[in-house]
Amino acid sequence: MRFLLVALLLFPVPLLAQMKFVLQYQDQFGKWHRYQEKHNEGDAYRTAKARAKATGKRFRIVDGDGRLIDLVDP
User: Fold this and answer.
1) Are 12 and 2 contacting, i.e. CB atoms less than 8 angstroms apart?
2) HSE of 32 in the Cβ direction (CA atoms, 13 Å)?
3) Sign of torsion, CA 9 12 15 18?
4) Cβ atoms 19, 44 nearer than 8 A
5) pTM assigned to the model
6) Which of 52, 55, 64, 70 fits as disulfide partner to 74, beta carbons 3.0 to 4.6 Å?
7) What is the tens place of the pLDDT at every residue in 42-60?
8) pLDDT in tens, the chain (74 residues)
C-alpha cells in the first residue's frame, strides 16, 4: 500500500492534468495572435464564436501543444 502511494506521488497520472485551449485571432496579414486561454472546450468555443461575430475576425482554438481544435469564421 505504501509503495502505491509513493508511486502515485512520484509519477502523477497524466489524465488528471487539465487541458489548455488557446484562442487565437487572425489579423489582416494572415498572422495568428494569442487572445485568451481557457480550460473548458465548450467555453472556449462559445467565446471564440462570440468574438468572431463581434470583431469580424477569424478565430481558432488550439490545444496546449499547438494542434488545431476548431476554426471559427465570423
Assistant:
1) no
2) 13
3) positive
4) no
5) 0.76
6) 52
7) 999 999 999 999 999 999 9
8) 666 666 666 766 565 678 999 999 999 999 999 999 999 999 999 999 999 999 999 999 999 999 999 999 99
Q: Which three cell numbers stand for residue 29?
A: 496579414
Cell of 43: 467555453
Mean pLDDT score of the chain: 89
Helix/strand/coil (H, E, C) string of the chain? CHHHHHHHHHCCCHHHCCCCEEEEEECCCCCEEEEEEECCHHHHHHHHHHHHHHHCCCEEEEECCCCEEEEECC
Terminal Cα distance for the chain, rounded: 55
